[in-house]
Structure prediction request, 176 residues.
Amino acid sequence: MPALRPILALMVMLLALPRAAAAQDTGGFERLQGLKISLSHSVRIVEREGEGRVVHAALEEEYGRPVWQVNALSEQGMREYWVDAMSGRLLRIAELPLRGRVYSLLVGLTPDKIRNAKLNVTDAVTRAEADTRAKAELMEIDQPRSRMEYLVVLRDAERLHRIRMDADSGEIVFKD
Prediction:
């Protein structure tokens, strides 16, 4: 196990990169306004076309085009989907079996636990957008207090918003 610690630390840092990038981007609202495919829509595309349960979605850029990077956890591991944010077309699917095992180990979530939550990803994002009147640019599922929560990062013209929702009760447990 001690030999795996550097690998686990690297995986945690890689999972945190999109959150850090989203917090530093100041021109994100205009970019979000111009998208034809929302975060919720990209999640629905992946859940319809792909395999597993979505645990992370974030707006990224690839070759100058906006894309939604959507990670889905299945029994076989993690899959990373790249959805064109203008057309909704799946651009790429990458198999990440090790990342899936590390995620399940560190966060303690399984596809069954996510599937059985009373509040699903798209409903959590839709509710956060309605509550803040902003556009979602990042969604993550984690389990910080031994309960599954959705973290939704949203942006409007003035600022960044963060909302955490309990996946079972639908209660907003944090908002800034």
